[in-house]
Amino acid sequence: MKGMFTSMKKCLSLIFAVLFIVSSGMTAAGSDKTSRKDKKIDPIDDLFADYALVAPPEPVNLPIIMYHQISENRGRLDTYVISPDEFEEDLKLFKDNGFTTIAVSDLIKFVTKKGELPEKPIMLTFDDGFESDYVYAFPLLKKYEMKAIFSIIGRFTDMFSEEGVVKHINYSHLSWDQITEMHKSGFADFHNHTYDMHVIDKRRGALPRKYESDEEYEKVIKDDLGKLNEEYKEHIGVSPEAFTCPFGCYNDRLKEAVRKVGFSVIFSSAQTMNTLTGDPEELFKLNRFVREHNKNMDKLVSSWDKYYNKDKENKNNDNK
Fold it and tell me: How many Cβ atoms sit within 10 Å of the Cβ of residue 17?
């Protein structure tokens, strides 16, 4: 009899222990919901939150090329101006070496585990939004069925969209009609290069001024970038996800201010390869190689072999 009561006592103790654990879990879950409701959530952190526990993808090498302007005038060719022939040769070179051009949305899908990148992705970016993008780059992108990212300066696009404005291919910027046509093609991906901060005056590009508080600076960034984003929505129906730093000027305060506006990608100007592991933070400073006139692009592409050969070696070692 004593043994029976001992067994019943142990059984009841076990039942009470289980009930206690279950009720504690429910209480914790309820308090967690309350805290999440009260907590102000960063829109970018929230975008990626659901994917934090998903296994990271295989690392991907991503070279990004930075272009500015294309011209047929040989006297204008320099660090930031190349010829149409040079751009076409670049497109052929990338295709022949197995590269596939991607858009910013492809990067977002990659880090949120909603899509994969091609084996050898590459990004072609054009800064400033010159009209030569439409006249020279756009027809070649369509010819070779390749994509490029265009980051415009909103004030200049507004200026050159006005009726009767005097234009010249040496200095004109894209109009909203041209941007709309390019966007609809699927070969042009448009993003933000500020509305009116592409200057070096009291501040250097979009960097904070000396002694400017975080609150003051964040309002300046929100107002300027937000203005261009609203114009994009009005004209092409979408809002940019990437910000391109004027003059390549970048620091941590800029990163945080741009993040708070809602951007998830920032293009800088450090000339080195990007290796993406699936961490969203990696997208907040993407490096780019400047395409200068007379630059030996074969040599540049060959210099990337070490990254791809290293990947092959790692895969071979994993298969052993």
Answer: 10
Q: pLDDT by residue (tens digit) across 111-124?
A: 999 999 999 999 99
Burial 38-64 (b: 16+ CB within 10 A, else e): eeeeeebeebbeeeeeeeeeeebbbbb
Q: What are 15-71's pLDDT values in tens digits?
A: 444 444 444 444 444 444 444 444 455 555 555 555 554 556 689 999 999 999 999
Structure-block tokens of residue 78? 């320099």
Taking the C-alpha atoms of residue 2 and residue 4, their distance in angstroms, rounded to an integer, is: 5
CA-to-CA dists, residue 250 to 104, 107, 206, 247, 319, angstroms:
19, 20, 8, 9, 41
What residue spans define the domains of the chain? 59-197+265-311
How many angstroms separate the Cα of 292 from the Cα of each of 17, 66, 69, 137, 289?
A: 71, 9, 10, 15, 9
251 close to 268: Cβ distance less than 8 angstroms: no
Residues 6+ apart with CB under 8 A from 118: 100, 102
278 sits in the region (left: phi over 0; alpha: psi -120 to 50; else beta) called: left
* 224, 68 contact by CB (below 8 A): no
pTM over 0.70: yes
**Residue pair 253/217 in contact by the 8 Å Cβ criterion:** yes
59-197+265-311 homologous superfamily: Glycoside hydrolase/deacetylase (3.20.20.370)
